[in-house]
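Subject: for your reference before the review

Hello V.,

The reviewers asked for a structural picture of the protein, and I figured it would be easier to keep everything in one thread rather than splitting it across files. Below is the amino acid sequence we used in the manuscript, unchanged from the supplementary table.
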Amino acid sequence: MRQAAVLPSVAAAFVVLVTGTAAAGPFAGIVKTTEGSPVIVHGGASRPATLGAFVEKGDTVRTDAKSAIGLVFSDDTIISMGPNSEVAIDDYLFEPAGRQLSFVARVLRGTVGYLSGQIAKLSPKSVRLVMPTATIGVRGTHVLISVK
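And here is what came back from the structure prediction:
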């Protein structure tokens, strides 16, 4: 995956997200890296997954045969998706002061890397990665998943 020259604006957007201005809203994370033409689908509408784009609860992120994407969530969770992959963010809540923590993602197809963040550290039972034939409760820090 490649990084673009817009890292200052991506960093600024992430600071807003992490400091709470946007964290109280629906935004869960941002697109940190892209290759090719990944998309974000929300409510049936598809938009390009450009660097710095917000990802929110209810979004589905898709890559095609020539795409890849890296997502960073406000709790520092990282999801990397290879070509022909699809992940739905079913639930995301990161309000550690109120102990309101949840991360539920469905891996629908493809190859996905997951590196746990603060939600898994503070409340491991609040993290679930769901696949067509299994559900993983995250107790470690790094998971690589392949769904065909």
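For the response letter, the relevant points are probably these. The chain has one domain: 7-147. The two ends are 22 Å apart (CA to CA).

Happy to draft the paragraph if you're swamped.

O.
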